[in-house]
């Protein structure tokens, strides 16, 4: 076996052993007699108003996707900002087209009412 693989195997053994040891230690330490109050969803003294597995509206998912788009925009703008001087006017034109496409998407989402929280 080549010596180059030895650190990888050691790391793999530690990566497998650590979670197994943590779960075994938690099982030994935790109390073994759960009761009805401990098994409830919330321990604040107030009964749950409804089932926690209710459905979300489509508006929630649309807003979540808009946040993902904003994050992707930030991810693509950072490398451009780092290499701004080397890209020159060609880089400025590329980013302008990119931001224009994103602006059209935001205007469309705004007109559809996806940005309203009410």
Largest β-sheet summary: none
- The whole-number mean of residue pLDDT values reads 81
Structural class determined from secondary elements: mainly alpha
Radius of gyration equals: 26 Å
Distance between the termini: 63 Å
Please work out how many helical segments DSSP would assign: 4
CATH topology of the largest domain: Methane Monooxygenase Hydroxylase, Chain G, domain 1
Tally of distinct domains? 2
Task: Tell me what the structure shows.
By secondary structure, the chain is mainly α. It has two domains: 3-39; 58-112, Methane Monooxygenase Hydroxylase, Chain G, domain 1, CATH 1.20.58.1610. The protein is flat, with a radius of gyration of 26 Å. The chain is 69% helix and 0% strand.
Reconstruct the topology from this structure.
Elements: H1 6-29, H2 36-39, H3 58-82, H4 84-112
Helix pairs in contact: 3-4
Keywords summarizing the entry:
Methane Monooxygenase Hydroxylase, Chain G, domain 1; 2 domains; 4 helices; 118 residues; single chain
Short description:
The chain is mainly alpha-helical and 118 residues long.
